[in-house]
Write a structure and sequence with these properties.
365 residues; alpha/beta; 2 domains; 14 helices; binds adenosine monophosphate; binds manganese (II) ion
């Protein structure tokens, strides 16, 4: 049975943070010297969870009285337009202005060092490095880890740490954490939308923030040029029903020329995967987004039959079982060839759902 093969290439299931890890994280913050310098970093090309978790925690640290506080991310210091009204943005500095030797560095939503770009050196140069994340593929690259692979977003981990630090939620923190939670749960639609997620959302909404306004701004507003661009990109979508071991692959790509032709910034490409992944005839969906001449940011999704994080990890990236990504090098068709090959190699988990007694029996065959 090929299910066993799929398990072999998956990263080992990570554990929840231990009490000792929570205590170490709390004391890394409470034992900062009075003028201690803290640098917050989130992953390159930040999404709502990366920025929201980082800025929400930054506002919490500010409440605690941390004065020397910077937030940053690698690469161009460009915040996607829909996220440009987030509370706490005044904490942001360009990567080039980030403290070279902070007392404490805290990473948010970063699964691996490669997602820190030129800021990776801060891990060695900081007095201590704390990692807050929820990727099962997290490589544990810091000193203290709060990595909860069952958390729907990094902001879930952030809220728990704020509670342990005695920082109450205010509307600013809540808006940041809400944007993070809504982003990573697909506005409370994905499988990880547990009762605990809704309970957290209730605590955030109780601060008076406006979910309708936030959702319209973050998810439902794009320039007209982006809508025309989507027409071009979706028009070249390919369906391969026999790929991925027969469960089907659907994919498309967006080039720098597409962006230039419609006068759009790269962030406008992010919603495309949602239009592609709705294809009924394919379990696996991919969007390749050109970053430079021979470099592509690849988004992958599965409806449930495929562990796309295993495929992404094999190709140098990471993510979650049903949503993952990697940086591809070469032409779009070379990258799709590599994805097809990995999907074929990964095999299929079989007809039973993962974790069921039948699937376990099949995996032992
Ligand atoms: P995206 O398709 O960009 O929404 O990303 C889906 C998931 O894959 C998120 O959890 C990302 O953090 C993760 N991911 C995307 N690209 C990479 C990458 N190059 N390396 C590691 N993880 C990634
Ligand atoms: Mn993210
Ligand atoms: Mn996340």
């Amino acid at each position: 049975m090929s299910g066993a093969l799929l398990t072999d290439v998956s990263p080992p299931a990570a554990e929840q943070p231990t009490e000792a890890e929570w205590a170490a994280a709390v004391s890394a913050i409470t034992r900062l010297p009075a003028d201690g310098r803290v640098l917050l970093i989130c992953h390159v090309n930040p999404d709502g969870d990366a920025l929201g978790s980082m800025l929400g925690f930054g506002l919490g640290l500010r409440q605690l009285g941390v004065r020397h506080l910077q937030a940053t991310f690698p690469g161009r210091p460009e915040v996607p337009e829909p996220l440009q009204a987030m509370p706490g943005l005044d904490l942001l500095v360009p990567a080039t202005a980030a403290d070279p030797e902070p007392d404490l560095v805290i990473c948010f939503d970063v699964a691996a060092v490669s997602r820190l770009g030129d800021l990776a050196d801060r891990l060695d140069r900081a007095g201590a490095a704390l990692v807050l994340d929820h990727h099962a593929s997290n490589t544990r690259f810091g000193g203290i880890h709060l990595v909860d692979p069952e958390a729907a977003a990094t902001s879930v981990v952030v809220e728990k740490l704020l509670v342990r630090l005695g920082v109450p939620l205010d509307a600013g923190i809540a808006e940041c954490l809400y944007i993070a939670l809504a982003t990573d749960t697909g506005s409370f639609r994905f499988d990880m939308t547990t009762p605990a997620v809704h309970e957290m959302a209730a605590r955030l909404l109780a601060t008076g923030i406006s979910p309708g306004q936030i959702s319209r701004r973050i998810f439902d507003t794009r320039p007209f040029g982006a809508v025309r661009l989507y027409g071009d990109v979706l028009g070249r979508t390919q369906l391969e029903p026999s790929a991925a071991g027969g469960v089907g692959l659907v994919w498309t790509y967006a080039t720098l020329a597409d962006l230039a032709r419609h006068g759009q910034r790269p962030y406008t490409l992010e919603p495309l995967i949602d239009s592609v992944r709705c294809t009924a005839e394919a379990d696996v969906s991919c969007v390749l987004k050109q970053v430079t001449e021979a470099e592509w940011a690849v988004s992958m999704r599965s409806k449930g039959a495929t562990d796309v994080s295993a495929v992404a990890v094999a190709l140098g990236g990471g993510g979650h079982r049903l949503a993952a990504g990697f940086t591809g090098r070469g032409t779009a068709s070379e990258i799709v060839d590599a994805i097809r090959a990995e999907l074929a190699r990964a095999g299929r988990p079989g007809p039973a759902g993962e974790g069921t007694p039948l699937a376990d029996l099949q995996a032992r065959e």
